[in-house]
Amino acid sequence: MKKAVIFDMDGVLIASEPVYQKRRQRFFEKYGVHLTEKQQLSFVGSNPPKMMATLFPNDARKQTEFLTAYRAYTAKHIIDYASILDPTAETLLKKLQQKGLTLAVASSGSQRAIEQVLTETGLASYFETYVSGESFEESKPHPAIYQATAEKLGYQPSECIAVEDSYYGVLAASRAGIDVLLLRNPFYYIEAPQAHAEIDKLIQVLDFV
Questions:
Q1: What is the C-alpha separation between 88 and 202, in angstroms, rounded?
Q2: How close are the terminal C-alpha atoms of the chain, in Å?
Q3: For 144-151, which contacts have Cβ atoms below 8 Å and span 24 or more sequence positions?
Q4: CA geometry: angle at 180 spanning 178 and 182, to 5°?
C-alpha cells in the first residue's frame, strides 16, 4: 500500500517546459549559440549546471561564465507560475490528502525556485517537504534525491510513488526503488521503459494510490 506521493515540479505540477525552452533559446541566441531540438529535449528534467556542462563539456571557464549569465537572465525574465499551473493540481492534492497520503516534491530545480513556484501557485501547504537537486553532488538521474525524500518522509521507497515527466526523473525514481508514473507531456515525447505506468493527465494519479 502506498503511503506517499512524490512529485516532480516542472512539467508535472506546472506546464513549464515550453516556457523554459523559449527562454533558453532567447538567452543563447544572444551569444550566437543555437540550441537544436535534440538538445532542448535533453535538458528536460535537468538543471542549469548540467545544461552548461553538456553544452561546453571541455571548457570549465565557459560553463561558469554562461551559468552566471543565465542565472542573471532568468532572474530578470520572470515567469508567471500561477498561469501555467496544471488546473487539476490542487484538486488532486486535496484528494490525495483525504486518502491519508503524505505529499512531497523532488525537483532538479533550485531550492529558491521550488519555494517560489509552490508559494506563487498556492500549493506549498500541501507538501510535507520539498527537496532540491542542488542539495546533492549529482541530481537526476542519480537516485539520491528520491532516496533522501523518502527518508525525510519516514517511508520505505516501496511505500512511495513518484510522478515524473522526464527520462532523467523516471530513471532516478526507479533506481531508488520507487514505482514511478510517467506523465505524458503534450509538448514533447520521451521513452522511459522504467516507468511503472504512463498517464495522460495529472489527475489520473488517483487511479494508482
A1: 7
A2: 8
A3: 145/106, 145/108, 145/172, 146/6, 146/106, 146/172, 146/173, 146/175, 146/176, 146/178, 147/176, 149/6, 149/104, 149/106, 150/4, 150/6, 150/176, 150/178
A4: 165
Identify the residue whose cell numbers are 496544471.
Answer: 86
Q: Could you report the per-residue pLDDT of 62-119, keeping only the tens digit for each?
A: 999 999 999 999 888 889 999 999 999 999 999 999 999 999 999 988 898 899 999 9
Contact 104, 7 (CB under 8 A): yes
Residue 62 makes CB contacts below 8 A (sequence gap 6+) with 52, 56
d(CA 107, CA 136): 11
How far is the C-alpha of 91 from the C-alpha of 61, rounded, in Å? 46
pTM listed for this prediction: 0.84
- 180 φ, ψ to 5°? -130, 135
Distance, CA of 137 to CA of 146 (rounded, Å): 14
Judge whether 107 and 136 are in contact, CB under 8 Å: no
Looking from the CA of 43 toward its CB, the CA atoms found within 13 Å total 25
Cβ-in-10-Å burial (0-12, 13-18, 19+) of 93 comes to buried
Question: By CB neighbour count within 10 A (0-12 exposed, 13-18 middle, 19+ buried), where does 204 fall?
Answer: middle
The SS3 call for residue 14 is strand
Full 3-state SS string of 185-204: CCCCCCCCCCCCEEECCHHH
